[in-house]
Amino acid sequence: MARTPSAMKYHRQSEKRRLVNRARKSTIRTFTKKAVAAAETGDIEAAAKYQKVVQGLVDRASKGSTLHKNTAARRKARLAKRINAARANQEAA
Question: pLDDT band for position 86 (50/70/90)?
Answer without folding.
Answer: very high
